[in-house]
């Protein structure tokens, strides 16, 4: 057999000079804060590396439980086989970010008001800092990060041309994933790897790429929104005085709507990380384990997020709720809602927005979004928002009586779409793009952690059914 191997040094020599120049100039921009996010991450790296080293030395052969045939055939549900630093999801208590629940995070993480812009909800920049470092940032640190993201948020001209070349009929999520992958053109990690960077330094250009990508996601999403639906400012103008989502809201035409802007901040902050086993987060980790750069890794994650069993679910929930409203009217009684729920179940369909792969209690993200609705008069008076709220009180009893769900409570998708709809963003196919902006805040920090921890390529063992049967009969 003839084989062809190309020495890595030859591949390095063939690297475009543009990429090498990008790697050489990969110093982080400093703004008026006590420390940059990159400095803050650098502080925790030695401690995390030592923690991993000790775990390997002390517990490498410790058992985490048995793998059963039901695990292999059931999508690996519940198997403890991933390291994920940013968040932990418990079936009873819900999500925590470095030990902090959503209510805890709302109490301690800086808001818009804290950095001088209007808004009382968590800034995604604050959540990003927490997920990367495990520490609560100061308002000054968050403001510095906001300024850095604004400085890096403008799209390169080649990417604008690529996005503008997409047909309007191409699904927004397909456009989004393709646009993100195209930024690989400027990857500092890819350039540094081609040049021959030390393995212990992989995390630094990975962080540079991750920050650059997070900075550009709002403009990418806004340009797609303008091209497909004709809404927004048309040129994705960035105001250096605004936070990440303040700019995004302005780009898509909602800059003067304080309620919508603050809702987007909360939505994006609490959707960012939901431990590592979900499809989008796991995909970013899996593709990144092959040392693909953050743009390629997160592009793959977006394609997973686009599926109806994952990120696409919120638009399905809203469509179902609007159909219910059309059938029962805007002031439906409890009995009418029960009848509609039973009609859905008896037709062989599920009630969308209810149940969760892990949770056995109401989703705390749903609770946070519901509480937001309670604080805004325009949402308290919304017929569709109030119908969704009313269904959340009635559906658990119906689903419990039905007896075919382990968790009869609402998940985050039950609430998220109706608020966007009420504020006027009614283009359903765009909803998952907003989710896509958010999930980067959780998936990319783990990619940085994977690099400074030196995690190996992910390669589980698979079996055919014949091989499985033969093994079981031994």
Automatic annotation (TrEMBL):
Name under which the protein is recorded: Citrate synthase
Main location (coarse class): mitochondrion
PANTHER family xrefs: CITRATE SYNTHASE, CITRATE SYNTHASE 3, MITOCHONDRIAL
Organism superkingdom: Eukaryota
Gene Ontology BP term (one): tricarboxylic acid cycle
GO cellular component, one term: mitochondrial matrix
Listed Gene3D superfamilies: Citrate Synthase, domain 1 (1.10.580.10), Cytochrome P450-Terp, domain 2 (1.10.230.10)
GO MF term set: acyltransferase activity, acyl groups converted into alkyl on transfer
Keyword Zinc: no
Coiled coil: none
NCBIfam families (alphabetical): PRK09569.1 (NF007128)
Pfam family, one: Citrate_synt
InterPro entries assigned: Citrate_synth-like_lrg_a-sub (IPR016142), Citrate_synth-like_sm_a-sub (IPR016143), Citrate_synthase (IPR002020), Citrate_synthase_AS (IPR019810), Citrate_synthase_sf (IPR036969)
Annotated family: Belongs to the citrate synthase family.
Keywords per UniProt: Mitochondrion, Transferase, Transit peptide
Location of the protein in the cell: Mitochondrion
SUPFAM superfamilies attached to this UniProt entry: Citrate synthase (SSF48256)
